[in-house]
Amino acid sequence: MAGQQPTLRAQRRAETQHAIQTHAVRLFRERGYDATTVADVADAAGVSPMTVYRHFPTKEDLVLVDQIGALVADRIAASPATRTLVGRIGGALVDAATALTGEDPESEGKFLLARTQLMISTPALRARHLDNQYLLQRAVVDALGDDVADPDAVFRAQAATSACLAALHTALVRWAEDDGRSALPELIAQALTASFGDDVLDHRR
Amino acid sequence: MAGQQPTLRAQRRAETQHAIQTHAVRLFRERGYDATTVADVADAAGVSPMTVYRHFPTKEDLVLVDQIGALVADRIAASPATRTLVGRIGGALVDAATALTGEDPESEGKFLLARTQLMISTPALRARHLDNQYLLQRAVVDALGDDVADPDAVFRAQAATSACLAALHTALVRWAEDDGRSALPELIAQALTASFGDDVLDHRR
DNA sequence: CTCCAAATGTTAGTGACTACCAAGTTGGTA
DNA sequence: TACCAACTTGGTAGTCACTAACATTTGGAG
């Protein structure tokens, strides 16, 4: 399910999807979310409005859908089970942020910043900022392996995920307000240590 | 602001508003929320679609807008400041529920039940079940009087309100699932005592 | 090469919601 | 009582998010 060879069709599909979302975020920031129609986005991306809807069920999803969830989920699954849950989740968040913001400035980092600022400044989107939470919830539960049978373990996983996401949210808001001048991974680490103590991420230092 | 004499104009306005909302909730329950158009509601209420939108900005508001918030707020403000915050809020909730469900069955109680069941069973509405929370938040802060200057007092008020609303939510869900057979005030009291101990509402017993 | 399925486009439509203008009512006031 | 201003409503036309149905092209597997 994860290591499928990238067929040409899937590649094209990913390209279209990426183009649509990039142009959407750009237009939303330039003209405002409400002042930009889905048709505008379609024109800018060089596709028909129908294609936009086939890739993103609603206009909100143009901003909300992300690949980061899967990125973080993979890192959680790959992290050693000997660490604490919060340590594994938090570490995955920091790692993912490092990977995303560390590349050349014109790349994913800038897009992530624009997307975050858009989500925070647009009322309709702000309310759904944590909607993708379920992706991480599932990843954490999956990472637990066979412990899923234990209800307590599942509850602990959900609690840990929620807490980590709250820290992530804090860091993202700060990062967006700072216009990306601070380093996102450090902000996340700060928020995590503020909540869980200095030694949460010790495994990585 | 509160004791205005009900002029004829305001009375008519309240009547149309009430008629629209009553027919809306009835139709939504009969045919489903999505399968009922605003035009259908307008027809049933004997007004034009424009009039519906003037009274209720969005279709969701046809279900969400209520007078209960104000009812509870008044009771909170009138309650003695010597009681605990949770006691005052909880007592107001129980009192309001008693007033609403105690009347003749064809009246407000039945409407409240239908409205609650609708909100719980409709995904688009369920997410906004606690949207009117701010009404109570304001009422509680107002009831605090001059303590508003104290940030701690405001935080305590918000925490107490949230906790009481969670209990109210639990009670409402149970009431709706029970199809109104249980007594709503008792369900609320149960949920409150489960969270805050047997003596929360003692002042009233 | 052939055939299937995925991806896109086109068209037509539904329905929530808004802007603008016209007409009738109400409530206070000269 | 007569009148004016504000309120309430209706109608028309339009925008825009979103859907359904059908036709067309193109990548992939046998």
From TrEMBL, chains A, B:
Residue span(s) of domain HTH tetR-type: 14-74
Classification via Gene3D superfamilies: Homeodomain-like (1.10.10.60), Tetracycline Repressor, domain 2 (1.10.357.10)
Pfam family, one: TetR_N
Chain coiled-coil ranges: none
DNA-binding residue intervals: 37-56
Residues in the signal sequence: none
Keywords, ordered alphabetically: DNA-binding
UniProt-recorded Gene Ontology molecular function terms: DNA-binding transcription factor activity; transcription cis-regulatory region binding
KW Repeat (keyword) present: no
Protein name, UniProt field: TetR family transcriptional regulator
Organism from which the protein derives: Actinocatenispora rupis
